[in-house]
Amino acid sequence: MGSPVIICHMISSIDGRILPDRWTRPAGDVDRDTLVNQYYEIEKWYNADGWIIGRSTASEHFVKDTEPLQVITNRLPRETYVAHREAERMAIFMDPHGKLQYERGDIDGDAIVAVLGEAVADEYLRFLQNRGVSYCFAGSDGHDVRKAVDILGQTFGRRKLLLEGGGRINGAFLKAGVINKISLMLYPGIDGLRGIASSFDCVGAKDEIFASGQALNLKHAEKRENGVLWLQYDVEKTSA
Ligand SMILES: NC(=O)c1ccc[n+]([C@@H]2O[C@H](COP(=O)([O-])OP(=O)(O)OC[C@H]3O[C@@H](n4cnc5c(N)ncnc54)[C@H](OP(=O)(O)O)[C@@H]3O)[C@@H](O)[C@H]2O)c1
User: Fold this and answer.
1) Cβ(60) to ligand 1 under 6 A?
2) Smallest CA separation from ligand 1 atom 46, residue
3) pTM listed for this prediction
4) For site-directed labelling of 89, which of 64, 132, 148, 162 has its Cα 20 to 30 A away?
5) Which domain holds residue 208?
6) Could you tell me which of 183, 141, 196, 139 has the C-alpha nearest to residue 51?
7) How many A from CA of 29 to the centre of ligand 1?
8) 69-106: pLDDT as tens digits
9) 106 CA distance to ligand 1 centroid (A)?
């Protein structure tokens, strides 16, 4: 099996920022959540076989985190562990240091896959196995996004995955050149504060062009209820 199609699906203010609680209220007598919920409608429409988020988003919305365990022993092989091969949908958490403290192996029926760095403690791997959580490794520091995507396709059989933030994990996928499509929902509001998380927050030098060699081809633009815009782009490889 090859690599899955990766669709980055996000909702942002018109200034590209991604923390909904900070956005201006919508016009008219309608609340912010009504608009933001359109994000979940489109998420369902994609009918993907999994979704990927970064450790910060995971700990904010789904699973408590803690300081990683100190490495006491390092004897277990750093090999992919599959708890649920047949799962229809998977919830994939990019957690390089093994901070997330899962209570069970799924989120609302979606089987969890933890993507880790090889330096996590054996004790953490045993903890995941006991909780029924699958795991795999994205290189020694857990940042090898391309490797993770290959494993998700080849070992976990994923064909279509939504990459759902936050900005730092999206930035890492963008820099690695593994995003095939972008689905951006533009909320008709503004954040305005410099430094707030945005759809793509790469880490690197000021003169680095992170999406170098990639161009966006607009495939669909839709004006939806209450002024939300839905933009779909293909990410195409270019020569420079
Ligand atoms: N509006 C939207 O559509 C939307 C969608 C999702 C999230 N959000 C919001 O976005 C905010 C979080 O965004 P964020 O950018 O701060 O965090 P994030 O992208 O959710 O998570 C970043 C973390 O992911 C881990 N990671 C794994 N692989 C990595 C790699 N290759 N490169 C870099 N980091 C990697 C690191 O964890 P360690 O720190 O443990 O090393 C890193 O700190 C939340 O407030 C959330 O609510 C908004």
Assistant:
1) yes
2) 57
3) 0.97
4) 64
5) 1-49+159-240
6) 183
7) 32
8) 776 677 899 999 999 878 999 999 999 999 999 999 99
9) 20
